Amino acid sequence: MNVNAVMMVFCQYGFRKASMEDIAKAAGVSRQSIYKKFGSKEKVFEWVIEATMQAALTGALQALSHADNPLAQRMADAFDQWIGSFVSILHSTQHGGEILDRAIDTVSQCGSSHDESFYRALEDLMLEADLVRDRKAAADKAFVLGMASKGVMLKTETGDAFRLDMERIIKTVLID
Q1: Residue 143 carries which DSSP code?
Q2: Which helix (H) or strand (E) covers residue 28, if one does?
Q3: Number of domains composing the chain
Q4: What pTM does this model have?
Q5: What residues make up the domain containing 103?
Q6: Is residue 104 part of a domain?
């Protein structure tokens, strides 16, 4: 099933108005198949959010691991993967804000550890690069970068604007 296509159904119609028929069409399967696999629209939504978050985390961790790129670029690339992809969903779809709010609730209820995994990888990178003196300082910088990225996502209208703002923030945070 194409998780991005199903996500766009929720963003186009909103959670309440997205039908299992719309979801099935986007997924390229029958409505019965959706019910059989998930049982409810809520479970489909949970799957979409989990799969989307896992893909974002995988992309972000890969970006951080590109040792041949400069550190600031690796971090900017990682934030593009982690949060930047949600800018267009938020600002160019009719129900993006609603879906983002619902996704935040879903992630907190499911006890997802994606944020922790990403922040830990940022901490490890800063420690390996000797940008910070200890784990606490790395955790503080990762937290600031993470919170800033969420604010930038809300403020910017495009992925390019998100990237520029994050590059600016990363340079500022990394230069003590």
Answers
A1: H
A2: none
A3: 1
A4: 0.91
A5: 49-174
A6: yes
